[in-house]
Design brief:
Elements lengths: L3 H14 L5 E6 L5 E3 L3 H8 L4 E7 L2 E6 L2 E6 L5 E6 L8 E7 L3 E6 L6 E5 L24 H8 L6 H6 L9 H11 L12 H20 L40 E5 L2 E5 L13
Parallel strand pairs: 2-9
Antiparallel strand pairs: 1-7, 3-4, 4-5, 5-9, 6-8, 7-8, 10-11
Helix pairs in contact: 1-6, 5-6
The structure holds zinc ion.
């Protein structure tokens, strides 16, 4: 599933590919991708004649900016965008096509069909689902240690579940949650309110570091991640915890263990990331 770094990579790629392109018409082959407006035909009609002016990101959502409209898109498990010529054969599982006036098209393909698109007038997107309840952007300057602690430090939930929820910090999915908690040496099942000040500091730094590194490398591409040009993103980023069950910990040599937290496969080092009792601060 794409997380912040992968979505950031798609954003940057789309910014190079679709800016200035004018939509002639839109075909929707799988209506349920379109969440707003309710009628996909209205969605298509609203977009006709509009031009892409920019692509931004909020958490794991893309914000495709047009003249007078904002399209909010979530790739969920396996959604992909690609720009093609209109005579290129259309691949299976292509659900939405934005036909441009220049003979090219932006195609949205999604084997798992979990992706979503919401269309808004500019500004409306911030006060409506799915963007209205999102947490702090971890790569923004205002993601300070104080703000991070303010939204989380009093919570009783497991730290990994809270990181995944998107309500407090956005963009972190299963891979980067495991990587950040490993880097910070915090057990994924620790409750947020049990973390010490030095642990918050390490986690804050770790989140920024793992996400920044992954953005630099264009996303970690565990599986089936494809950038906006339709290229497979096999970047072979070195992951320290995620997917390394039974392999030696890079820090201490003990074997990485896999458990389930928040319903997700979770990798951690039982030696470096201990389940300790609450400490005095
Ligand atoms: Zn270790």
């Amino acid at each position: 599933m794409p997380e912040l770094p992968e979505v950031e990579t798609v954003k940057r790629t789309l910014n190079e590919l679709i800016i200035g392109k004018k939509i002639e018409r839109v075909s929707v082959h799988l209506p349920r991708i379109i969440q707003r407006p309710a009628d996909p035909e209205v969605f298509a009609a609203m977009l006709e004649g509009h031009t892409f002016e920019g692509v931004a990101r909020r958490g794991k959502f893309l914000r495709l900016l047009l003249d007078g409209l904002v399209l909010v898109s979530h790739l969920r498990m396996e959604g992909r965008y690609g720009v093609f010529r209109s005579d290129d054969p259309v691949e299976k599982h292509t659900h939405v096509i934005f036909h441009f006036t220049d003979g090219t098209e932006l195609r949205y393909k999604d084997v798992r069909q979990f992706g979503t698109m919401h269309l808004f007038l500019p500004g409306e997107e911030w006060v409506n689902p799915p963007l209205n309840k999102l947490g702090l952007e971890p790569l923004d300057e205002d993601f300070t240690l104080e703000r991070f602690r303010a939204v989380l430090a009093h919570r009783k939930g497991k730290i990994k579940s809270l990181l995944l929820s998107q309500l407090y910090v956005v963009g972190i999915g299963n891979i980067y949650a495991d990587e950040a908690l490993f880097a910070a040496r915090i057990h994924p099942e620790r409750t947020a309110d049990s973390l010490t000040r030095p642990e918050w500091k390490r986690l804050h730094e770790a989140i920024i570091h793992v996400l920044q590194e992954a953005v630099k490398q264009g996303g970690s591409s565990i599986k089936s991640y494809v950038n906006g040009q339709g290229e497979m993103g096999m970047f072979q980023q070195q992951l320290a915890a995620y997917g390394r069950e039974d392999e030696p910990c890079m820090r201490c040599g003990k074997r990485i263990r896999k458990i389930t937290v928040a319903g997700r496969g979770t990798h951690y080092c039982p030696n470096c990331q201990r389940r300790k009792k609450r400490l005095a601060r």
